[in-house]
Amino acid sequence: MIKSLLIVGLGGALGSIFRYLTSLAIGKHMPTKFPLGTFTANILGCFIIGLLFGYFEKNNLVNSDMKLFFATGFCGGYTTFSTFGYENISLFQSNNSLLAFAYIGASLFFGLLAVWFGLFLTK
């Protein structure tokens, strides 16, 4: 268990660093009011997790340390949106479309509500 936590933690730290660098690079080269750095990290993270899970499943590496480091750690640190995307695709692929749409809707609604409420409490 400790080994797994360290693997995930190291991957998460690197993912967070790369997310910060992505935001800096995008902001420096493409300044805009649109949160392009976050958008880029989220979309790139979704692409990376798709590649990783596809590779891990194809090569039967589902419980490997590589999955913990890259998918859970790195992609989790880079963006949790990637996990959200993967979970919803998995729900759609297992014919749970209604559950996927409920998860998407509830995540957006309650996520935005939670941010608003946190901001409200600090005013």
User: Whole-number radius of gyration?
Assistant: 16 Å
Strand portion = under 5%
The number of helical segments is 5
Mean pLDDT: 90
Keywords:
123 residues, globular, mainly alpha, 84% helix
Structural summary, described in words:
The chain is an all-alpha fold. The chain has one domain. Helices cover 84% and strands 0% of the residues. It is built from 5 helices and no strands. The mean pLDDT is 90. InterPro entries: FluC. One of its GO terms (biological process) is cellular detoxification of fluoride.
Short description:
It is found in: Cell membrane. This protein is an all-alpha fold.
Write the layout of secondary structure elements.
Layout: H1 2-29, H2 36-58, H3 65-78, H4 81-93, H5 97-121
Subcellular location: Cell membrane
Protein name: Fluoride-specific ion channel FluC
Membrane topology: Multi-pass membrane protein
